[in-house]
Every structure is written in C-alpha cells, then in structure tokens.
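Summary for the lay section of the report: proteins are chains of building blocks that fold into shapes. Here we show the chain for DUF5110 domain-containing protein and then a coded description of the shape we predicted for it.
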Amino acid sequence: MSLCIGIDEDIMIKLEENLIATTEPECSEKQCIQGKGYRITVLTSELFRIEVSIENNFLDKATQVVWFRNFDNPEYTAKEMKNNLQITTDKVTLFFDTKSLKAKYIKFNDSNRKIKCNNNYNLKGTIRTLDVFYLKKRLKNGIMSLNGVSVYDDSKSLILDNDGMISSREAKSNDIYIFAYGNNFRKCLKNFFRLTGKTPLIPRYALSNWWSRYKAYSQEEYIDLMKRFIKEDIPITVAVVDMDWHWVNVNEKFGTNYRRGRLILPGVLSVGWTGYSWNTDLFPDYKAFLKWLQEHNLKVTLNLHPVDGVRPYEDMYKEMALEMGIDPGSKEDIKFDITDPKFINAYFKILHHPYETEGVDFWWIDWQQGEKSKTKGLDPLWALNHYHFLDNRKEDKRPLILSRYAGAGSHRYPIGFSGDTVVSWGTLKFQIYFTATATNIGYAWWSHDIGGHCLGIKDDELYLRWVQYGVFSPILRLHSTSHDLQGKEPWNYSKDVEAFTKEQLRLRHRLLPYIYSMNYRTYNDSIALVEPMYYAHPEDKRAYLATEQYSFGSEFIVCPIIRKINKRLKMAYSDVWLPEGRWTDFFTAQIYKGNKWVRMFRGLNTIPVLAKEGAIIPISDNIGNDCSNPEKMTLHIYRGNSSFVLYEDNGYDNKYIDGKYAKTTFSVEENNDIIFNISKVEGVKEVIPKNRQYKLLFKDIVSAEKVEVRINDKIIEEINFNTDNCLSVELKNIEPDENVQVIISGYKIKENISYNEAIIEILTKYQASNILKMLQYKILQYTKSKDIATKDRYIEKIKRLCVLPKVIRGAVEEYLD
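The coded shape description reads as follows.
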C-alpha cells in the first residue's frame, strides 16, 4: 500500500545537485563532416568519432563513457572520390566508404603504412571481476593496439542526461571511436582521458595498508585486532568492515520469512545479504567503535549489498518509507531502484549520510546481482559506482569507493575491487599481467585480495610473495574469507614469513611520498602508476613479451616472484627484461647492465625491484600509521642524470584542484662530481612541515674524498656523513624556501661482489653432498676476463656441464656481466 504524504505527484523529482556530473559533450561544427547516413568528428589528429545512422539521427549528449568532446579544432582536409571519403590530418589519413558506411583503414602519413580499422591486434584491457577463478580469464579490449589502430564501440552506452539520470538512446545507430596513435600509448591514454574524464586524485590514506576480512567480528574483537597491529608496529590506515556490520540472520532475529538469499557456501544461503542497521549484538556501541578507529588514524569503509532495498526491520525504514511515499504501517519492502531519482536521493540522504557523519569514510559496493535494471541496458553496478563516487565528494571531501569494474569509463570511480579470488600461484601470476594490462583502458587503481580470498592452498611462501607484490601494486589490501583457518594476519605464518611480511608492510607505508607523487602524476599527466613495459619501450619487441613485470611509477621496474623456492638452493627466480641503461636492485644493491634478459634469483625476503639510472626515491620516516607529509624523510639516490618531483597536499580534500599543493624538485647529476639538488618548494608551503630533515642515501657510492653542502649558495661547515653500507648525508632543519646542493667529489662507485664470491655464496646455501659441492665449486672457479669472447665461451662451457644442476648454472650466470 502506498501513501502520498504532502507530495504533489505532478512535481518532477530531480537528483540532488551533487549527484550530477559535469560534462561538455558537444563539439564544434568545424570538427564534423556529415553526409547521408554518417557523421565523422575529428577530435584530434589521431582520434576520430564515426556515427552511422540511416535517419541521420546523431548524438550530441554525454554517454556513460564519453563525457567530453569539446576538443581543440584540429586542422584537417576532407575529400571524397567514388564513395571514398579521405580525411587527412598532420598525422594520419582516415579512409571511409560512404556507400557501405564503414571505416576502411588508417594510413600513417610518416610511413604510408595502412592499417584496417578493427581490433585484431588489440593489446586488451580488463574485465569486471576475478571472482573464484582458477584459470586465466579472457580480457576485454582496450584502446591500445600492437599495430597502432584500435576501435572503441560506444553504441551500447546509454545517455547521461543533463539532469544526471540515465536514458536509452532514441534511435539505433553505430557510434565508434578510432584511436590511431601508433605506439605512442601514453598519448593515446591521455586523449582517452580527455574524452571520458580524468582519473581522480585518490586520498593519501588509501595508498598505505588496508585490513579486510569477511568475518563476523565483534566490536571488541576488531578493536583488539587493531591494537595488535599497533603493538606489532604494522601500519594499517584503512579498516574494512565486511557485511556482518549489519544484521545478517534476519529471519532468526526479526521473525521474518524471507526465502530469497545469496549463496555464500555450497548449500548455505544468506537472506540478510542487504542491510543498513548495525548489528548491536556484535557492535553494542557502533558510534564508539567508529570513534575509536578514527582516533587511531584509521579510515573506515563498510560493505554494501544493496540489491534487496530497505526492509521493515531496518532502523531507518520509517523515514525511508515516508520519503518514498509508502505507509510505514504497511511493512512493505522498499525496492531497490537505481533508476528512480526519488529512491537515489533517499538512498544517500537516509541510508548513508548519517553513518558518514558518525565516522564512515567511504563505501565498499559489493554488487554481485547481475547487470539488469528497469532502464534497459543500464548495469546497476555502473549506476552505483557513478552515484556513490559523486556523493562521496560532498563538502569538499576527496571521493573514494571500492567496487567492481563496470566497463570503459570506470577509471573515474576508483578504487576497483577484483573480487573473491582463489588462493593459488596461478592467481598471483595472472594478477601481475591483469593489473598492468588494465592501463590499456585507463583503469589504474585495481585492488586485489592480497594473499587470495578463499579455497586454494595454504602456502606461507605464496602469502609472502603476494604481500611483496602488494607493496608494489596500486593498493595493498589484505583480505580473506571467514574461516578460522584462513586469516591473513602475519603472525599466522612461520616466523621467517611473519618477520618478512611485517617488513614489507612497513615499507609500503614508508613509500607513501613516492606513491602519492605517482598518484598525482596519474591525475595530472595521465600516466598510470603501473604500466606494461611496452609503454616506455614501444619499439622493442621484448617489451611485449615481458608480461610478468611492469613499471611502478617513474623510477622502478618490478618483477614479482611467482614460483616456489628451489628447496636446495633456497632461492626462487624471475626472468626479468632490462631495457637499455644501468639498473640497481632496490633491496640487494646488485647492479645490472640493461638491454637483455636476466634470470634473477632471490631468497624469501625480496623480489627483483630495479631502480633506474638516476632514480630518486623519497621515503617517509613517519612513525606508526601516520599518513601526513613527513618531517623526516630518506631519499634513495642512484647515480645518473635525472630528477624527481615530490608532490604534496593535505591528502584528503579537493583544494589541490585550486592549486593548494606543494612541489619539491630533487635532481642528480653525474659528471666528474656527483651533484644533488633540492630545490626550494614551489606552491603552497603551508601543506608541508615548516622544516624538514633529510637523510640522503647514495646507494651506489661507497665513499668520497669530500662532501660539500651548500644552502642558498652558502657552504655549511659542519655536515654529517658516513659510509657504512653506502654514502649517507644528513641535512637538518631545511626550510621550504631554501635551495640545497650537495657536491660529492672523489667518490668510489659500489661494485658488485666478484663472480668467485657469488659462487661461494650460492654453493654455501645449496643443500647437497659436500663432496659434490666441492667438485662443483672447482669447476665454477673462474677469474673474470675482460675479453668478451672468453667470457661467452665460459658461459657456454658451464651450460654444457651436466655435473652442474640447471638451477646452479642459472644462479651463477646472473653474476656473469
């Protein structure tokens, strides 16, 4: 039974203003070439929109994917000859058949190379979820292509109207975009973002460590767990509370008789999958619970499954019913309807905003109930992501959600939740390729269940390797299922694995200055934190084969280990492709020459993380889970000629859009001397400490005859430096307006351990007969020759020696350079 209380049904309900996105979908008429049944828009010299409609019914509104077509007017010429329309820009020529109404091919003007307009060579993008999969999943297309031309089809994308609602297209038409950027993948992505909207700057706290578990925690149990993390000095900044924050056993609790449920285990249904009222049996004082988390520097997200709407037992049922024009006395369920503006407004105002006032920072939208809604073609997941993200930005708050991917354009709504993954080596391996490849559709912020969610195997080594990958992935969120035997707390594993895991989680937190600067780079420059190797090296075929590694920001190549340790050697390996240049391992300080593949062996405690020549890595020395811009900072500096811009703001609001941020440029020069510079801060200095203490670690310099420090060109007489493992220099009380220069003269470069030392190290660890090991040692002893031919002959010789196990041959070859 419905009850209208003081509501004029003739009044059109409109979305709240904060739920309406800003779009600019119309382009200049100068960009368009229109003929019978078609319209072609030249967006850039390498990006075309082609609409085909028999009725010449073309769309100038925003769609779910495309929000901006107001590009600058590129210069082009158009001529038609015998049903063949040629549109030429300074980069390419598009050939369009005006009879068949199809794009035939693109010709690149600099090479006259002609490429068909299809996705046969597409480098792929991403998919909705990795929920409970065992084998490699087929990815959907992205906008990057091996042959330089890709096609994005927007024909099924619905209209995003000016009032913020979604509607169907009025007429059937084809609406495609042709990206013809060759192998300039970053330029292609930048213009994709111009077309669809930028990737937002995510809050700083989201880039440290998250704790998450599908478990019915009590208030006391959850707080005790957070206290344990604090005691163990494990920095957690995001506290995830899964679905048991609300009532789940609703039939038992409220005497209801709901039959429809969600399969959570074979034969087990939960009818309380949806809920909005705190379970006071588990959380007797949820406000105190939220307050405690906030007071301990933890941001809070709660899990949502909104499919079942609002039921009569919910605390806010009466208010919601009245808002929807339903008599509360009827006890009628309020249906979930993400296509109804009245429901959408009430959904946020009544169900979510009060909890946000009390301490919930953002929402985990765990939609798993299909892709249909009352508006044909509208996936409820897309609508939930869209409106939740827009709503979360109110009151100048920097918005965030956690949810599954809902198609192209989802990069506007970070962060992505990849689903309930199986605990297996295969899952870990696939996630490495999966995460990097998602950049091909602009999706830069995937969050995986680090350690895996369910099923699979218990393997301490796998857990550690997953955490090590998580440190160098977009988001590190530990997660697992509810079973008592599957918790991902570090102390549930062997002592070595526990210790190494704690070190890695602390490192992730310390890397905040670096990762946050890359976060800004993603927002401002359209360069993702994680990129496939071919983005920076598109001309090298090897880059396309290096699918188990990736660039992590501007300074690193990372190659996680995805196979078990050799029990005898006590090491596992990764095959790493190193581009041209000098590369230094962040953990071992081993130096490698590039332009080759290297099989790198590592023990349990590290994975190959390679810093480029001239890399500068800013690391926080904050204590605990403090996410603020640090007063104390360590800089890892590697020889070369390069620079790094440290970006800082307050980390939580949108004032950065108006320029309220600070940038500090670090640079290193390698000539006769090593010269390192810290520039005075540019921008709003109030967002950073009044003065800062730096510890400079010159990672590949072991000593120096002289170290000179100048502040604003004035030589500082007393400086602290030492040469324990590498040259380190301490700078105290550096103010934002000061320029600092460090000049290192007469320096000694770090050298790798000798080949013979490497043999001793490898064979000492190797578990085998000592007599056999001594024989192997004698065979491997070698005085390294500068004669390349001699060295090459030696490598071939040891490869042929059957007495040497393959794993030892591989391990020693790593040191033959």
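Put simply, here is one thing we learned. Residues 341-358 form the longest helix (18 residues).
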